[in-house]
Amino acid sequence: MTHRPIRLGMVGGGNDAFIGGVHRIAARIDGCFDLVAGALSSTPEKAQASGAALGLSPDRTYDDFKAMAIREARLKDGIEAVAIVTPNHVHYAAAREFLKRGIHVICDKPLTATMADAKKLVKAANDSDALFVLTHNYTGYPMIRQAREMVANGDLGNIRLVQVEYVQDWLTQQDDSKQAAWRTDPERSGLGGSTGDIGTHAFNLASFVSGLTLESLSADLQSFVPGRALDDNAHVMMRYEGGARGTLWCSQVAPGNENGLRLRIYGDKGGIDWHQENPTQLWYTPFGEPKRLLTRGGVGTGDAAARVTRIPAGHPEGYLEGFATIYNEAAEAIEAHRDGKQVSADVLYPTIEDGLLGMQFVDACVRSSKRDAAWVKLAG
Amino acid sequence: MTHRPIRLGMVGGGNDAFIGGVHRIAARIDGCFDLVAGALSSTPEKAQASGAALGLSPDRTYDDFKAMAIREARLKDGIEAVAIVTPNHVHYAAAREFLKRGIHVICDKPLTATMADAKKLVKAANDSDALFVLTHNYTGYPMIRQAREMVANGDLGNIRLVQVEYVQDWLTQQDDSKQAAWRTDPERSGLGGSTGDIGTHAFNLASFVSGLTLESLSADLQSFVPGRALDDNAHVMMRYEGGARGTLWCSQVAPGNENGLRLRIYGDKGGIDWHQENPTQLWYTPFGEPKRLLTRGGVGTGDAAARVTRIPAGHPEGYLEGFATIYNEAAEAIEAHRDGKQVSADVLYPTIEDGLLGMQFVDACVRSSKRDAAWVKLAG
Amino acid sequence: MTHRPIRLGMVGGGNDAFIGGVHRIAARIDGCFDLVAGALSSTPEKAQASGAALGLSPDRTYDDFKAMAIREARLKDGIEAVAIVTPNHVHYAAAREFLKRGIHVICDKPLTATMADAKKLVKAANDSDALFVLTHNYTGYPMIRQAREMVANGDLGNIRLVQVEYVQDWLTQQDDSKQAAWRTDPERSGLGGSTGDIGTHAFNLASFVSGLTLESLSADLQSFVPGRALDDNAHVMMRYEGGARGTLWCSQVAPGNENGLRLRIYGDKGGIDWHQENPTQLWYTPFGEPKRLLTRGGVGTGDAAARVTRIPAGHPEGYLEGFATIYNEAAEAIEAHRDGKQVSADVLYPTIEDGLLGMQFVDACVRSSKRDAAWVKLAG
Amino acid sequence: MTHRPIRLGMVGGGNDAFIGGVHRIAARIDGCFDLVAGALSSTPEKAQASGAALGLSPDRTYDDFKAMAIREARLKDGIEAVAIVTPNHVHYAAAREFLKRGIHVICDKPLTATMADAKKLVKAANDSDALFVLTHNYTGYPMIRQAREMVANGDLGNIRLVQVEYVQDWLTQQDDSKQAAWRTDPERSGLGGSTGDIGTHAFNLASFVSGLTLESLSADLQSFVPGRALDDNAHVMMRYEGGARGTLWCSQVAPGNENGLRLRIYGDKGGIDWHQENPTQLWYTPFGEPKRLLTRGGVGTGDAAARVTRIPAGHPEGYLEGFATIYNEAAEAIEAHRDGKQVSADVLYPTIEDGLLGMQFVDACVRSSKRDAAWVKLAG
Question: Which terms does the record give in the GO molecular function aspect (chains A, B, C, D) (predicted)?
């Protein structure tokens, strides 16, 4: 990055939040952003304490996001972009305030808590000149870029099968932590439990790599833990346009799994296999040849992976670097926007449309499951 | 084995067959059987040549299984048991001849090619005093016995999820080999392609370990290779009695997979994970504790595994030993039968009922898939 | 095997022994041998009980190996070969009796307990027309044959490095079991503890695959467990003729290792990596290309592996099959001998010379270690 | 970090360097440092261009490190610390200039190119009030901290064996790249090739985790590539004070290895196993219990790992985070120094003494190898 860092604000991400800290590291790793303002909590005291802890200037530590949007938009050196890292039900209201003032939005997923909000947010984004970036961060892993490039290059032939799973165990039993509380609360999380929290990641990743469009799905959702209002496990069968089929399994009740996001794609000429927990490896089998282990930075990887690779092979880059890549892509797009230039076609980040698709995916899962796993189309 | 070996005949398994050789090794490994007669091919010349190659006496090398059944039943030292290793559509006719003459049958899976045959075979088995053993050989692996014992002991708590897959790649493209030909031919293989050939193994294994009874399923079957008459891939969602859910994926068109049979079971107290290609390992995670690697013969394994373990930990036993264990179990049951004793409850082998369940599973998959993956119950 | 099985006797391997049972299964798996006689224990009662348990005829169950050798040599249908599976210090005396009567010997390793015995046994073998086969069984694994063929074909280029280790943990603490007792007793085991028991396997395997001849070694041996008379851990640096270097580590006191035999060989064009505990896989990296996973029976494997492969890829063959391959090789050689034919060059089994090399290896380790790890040459 | 970032300068790390970029990311990830000055290349033009590319102010972009040290020391807001990331032979001269002006030094390893320089640098560091931090970055991995804590807690019992290896393949053949050129040039790299570049890392890591002090070593060094002046492979046997033994293997000519740094430590009560390429996992086997997989952030990990863990289990932290932890530790120490406080005992970073030990290790390897792998003591 030879340009000056982009001035960034943050909504949410106060002292006891988790994902805000991740966004801050991601924004910082490659020096593309400079965090200068924040409305870090809905509680004024926490907001102030959190701002101080992060070294924000007191006059740029806000008690609410609307005040931040209004004032920062007027400042000569106000924020150019904002990261929204609140629980889902706040995404829409917050994003709207910045979008309508021309401030770029980098928003955590899923897009919103409700489909109604999602549609309004799409409209708000479309009405704005500002960019909207959704942090489906797993698309930032170099070997995921590699996989996508290989599929696009036809290395796997005609795609037949997409198998994706995202399996965790942290909600196996009743959990009253803050992190668990909002994720299992329909008011704050939305229609989907595991489907919204991690299923959307899996769905997005499968689409990103395969390049396929989902036609319909059949979903069987469960809430295994007594009293849980949202799904904690989901089995989904998928039909893609063009004839490919797939399955998606997401679960938060499978003991022994931390963040078991795995993607396998098979065509008539080859297959690939990738695991998030060891993301520097991509298994590739051209049909009729021995299996090959492709590694981040290693021989046999192409331009798409190299573009987002920081260090040589054998020294693992991890989750934070993948997340940072989404921030870097946002930065490139924001700079192009600032300079009135076309952003390079290499720059890839999840958009508001991907966010809407994710909402439609959750909605379709819920609708299908209520109809005994009938096939339903994405709608919205 | 302190007793004399059991006299064994074989139907099918001639020179160019595959699974017959496996059965012969399995019968021999622990010295429990002595192969003394065979009707090894439907072509008389091949039958004779194959018998000679195996060192069978010419007068006990038969041109057809019926002749063998009739004569061996009359011999003083005639065969006590017969292994049937033909293509599926011959199983019924062959088994019937031996069962009705009191000769024990060890039969390859699936039970038959058609549901009608399956029902007739169940009747034949029930009408006979002879034993019927189906070689769902994967149930013979020590760590599968370990897993089953752990589930039964409650180590996983209440079972919620059963995820099983059996993935191969050898039919990814058009294949005209003998092995491929009959497996993709409805006349010889039956209703199911991948569902019959490997899906039944996966279904049986999941049931064996979990101890659960399938209530209904929703299946989406595909024939990806143009012109293929039977399914080469299947996605199945499962509902077990008592509320557990699961998925089963079987495929023969997923490049990079040889015999990727994997079983994962999760309860409210723990989870297990097992792969057939490295069968000496069983991953076990008690919820809230670190993952543990249990190994065949190693510390932390119990009586059920020890009973079928030949050599100490770290020296892998493989597929043939697992298969041999089914033969050993058959031998124990046959000896008990011979001696008029009750067979020990530890002796475990797949029965005719398991075979019928496998047929019902394939039938249900096909019925469900034709109805757009509607939920159907096993019937038959 | 189209020929009649070879008549086999056994010395050692009574009821409470371990390796005898392994030899019996190995002899039986492919039907090449028929066990018909035994001197199974040095205690007459145990010898008789063990023979009965194995179904041996009482008149061919002997109280001592010499009586067996004398009588069997005179029988019309006497044994053609004998398996010697006693503790090391008995190998020489037993083998001599059979060799001098023209009965082929299949002997467990290491060759003998003392170098003096080893030399006498070499002489006895050389003076006899009978064959001598040493069961360095790991050379029977298909992927080890594959590795050897690749090295010989020049796939790795000029060999520079040979890294081999054989690591166990069962002697980590004081152990008074029968298995442990004789292995840690110089009288019965010989000069070497871990070096003799497992170091010889590692040394033999490295030589077998690399095709290299050891020039000298520098060894640092330890007996970590107080009171242990023999080494339980050894670090060895090796210099091969032609300039290749290597290390060998054997240990029986490394908690978490069962039978961790691993071989890595590197040349100027490529490298390979193999683990005994998952023996169906061989990693191969041609320098400058992605790593490839070669599998037993899979694409990319050659004739040498195929020759000793029983079943298709993905269904693991294990330790017993590898062991059986040594027996099969012995059978082929014995048949060729019987028929007065030259045995095929494909037939590979460890010989008396390999056994002597193993003894020289242990001797050199002990000599070097006493001289503070000075470089010493193999001698003997 | 609630405090203001520490003002950092950098010597070396210009546009075409590798490790400088790593240091910059490491300094930035957790926001503890702010890069404000640099003497980034020995070529003035490159120095200026590199400074501009990093957004440094032109008046703080220096042509040489001495000028930087002099001026920055006088500035009111001059740098508080400097990162030295040049080839090894420049370390001493550069570090001296900053140390004598009270500017803290964070220096890449190995300490210097020559032992003479190392001794002078130790004196310079001891004479200065400023801190000296050596970036043996692998000690920053959370699971390495976990391993160290477990050893210290006695979880492994009395340590007997330390096995460490660091294996690469990038120098398998003649390589004329800039990265290869200086590393294989005695003038710029020093006495050691692979021993200096990666062997010192392995040695340091083994010492850090085991807590053991090396007593003597026996080393056999090779330069396999014709014409190479420095070792590209080394086999080292080690004797630690107190009786533990070990081996160290470092290589840059082993095809198929990227950054294969692996550490195994065994005591009389348990063993651990860790691989740098998948650094979030630590295998732990209490003797007589099943092997356990400990994961970064997962259950079963203790305070030492938690202290340097950023994100929950299952989302891999990698090399850059581990490197950043060394920077964070430096920052904590620098802040304590600034505030006149004692730094917490939890703060762990490699010191000038570790650097001297590394030099002594290389020196001892070279001395031993020249004397045919005689045992030598570290000396300096």
Answer: nucleotide binding
